Amino acid sequence: MMREIVRRLLATIPVMGVVAIAVFALLHVTPGDPAVIIAGDYATADDIARVRTKLGLDKPFLTQVGIWLGGIARGDLGASIYSGLPVTTLIKQRAEATISLTLLAMVISILIGVPVGVLAAWRRGSWIDRSVMIFAVSGFSMPTFWLGFVLVYVFAISAHWLPVQGFQSIERGLWPFLRHLILPAITLSLVYMALIARMTRASMLGVLSEDYVRTAFAKGLAPRRVLLRHALKNASLPVVTIIGIGFALLIGGAVVTESVFALPGLGRLTVDAIVRRDYPVIQGVILIVSGVYVAINLLVDVLYVVLDPRIKY
């Protein structure tokens, strides 16, 4: 088992290398010259040439790629074109808000989505099941920004229960930290929650029809014990898979959510960098996010063995 984990960890190195090259190439083939944008509207050809030389844009493409990969190997993601600060510093400054928002949204989605999906499968065809399906369809169809504005109007502007925007570090206290994250986390978790609930229901329906589950009910075991200990455990593999894959929904939704609630996270940093064509920041954020996504997929593969010992790599 440990050998397989190490092998998969080593396999992520070329994967991240391909991702780095793809990100670097994609940003450099998009329309627009960052040197022209930075130099300004009234810059001369000599001014633009000096900016290109300073940024290294006058070098051949393969040389630029080599410099980029060499910097990554040293832990250097470059410096922001506009602020001049190292990209790693900018990411560290914004990482706490995004990590906190994403983790809280994931916890809310799992704690609500899984039990709701189990209950819907157990009460198949009832009003509970139909309500869960309506919730799942609504969750997929509802725009994140629209839900965010609705929650802001109801809980922040009308009721004055929660703040409209901003972020408080956990160092200032648990309640101020959670108070600023509740609305964004609920907004971000809705689509993810609907996805988990629907997948849990579908997976549980297949398991509840198995003979060993019917035997457990026939023996007089409590429904809660049968559902959680026997059925859910064997139906958990597709659920774990969708939790890992659906993490991309949280990453993508964080960009919109952070903009709606003015959270100083990586999403807003990325949007600002795209508007300014700040290539080093865009590349650094995308590379970090890709690495996190690869690590989560690795964690999902490891959980397969933990949840089902019959699986052997």
Describe it for me?
The protein is mainly α. The protein has two domains: 72 residues, no CATH class; 218 residues, Orthogonal Bundle (MetI-like fold), CATH 1.10.3720.10. Helix content is 77%, strand content 0%. The protein has 15 helices and no strands. Helix 1 runs antiparallel to helix 15 and helix 13 crosses helix 14. It is globular. The mean pLDDT is 80.
Short description:
This protein has 313 residues and is mostly helical. The chain is built from 15 helices and no strands.
List the helices and strands and how they pair.
Layout: H1 2-29, H2 34-39, H3 45-55, H4 61-73, H5 87-122, H6 127-141, H7 144-158, H8 174-179, H9 182-208, H10 211-218, H11 223-234, H12 236-245, H13 247-260, H14 266-276, H15 279-307
The major sheet is characterized as: none
Q: Can you tell me the overall shape?
A: globular
CATH class division of the largest domain: Mainly Alpha
Beta-strand residue percentage: under 5%
**Quaternary form:** single chain
Please give the count of helices: 15
Give me the secondary-structure category. Answer: mainly alpha
The helix fraction, in percent, is over 70%
Provide the number of structural domains.
2
CATH superfamily placement of the largest domain: MetI-like
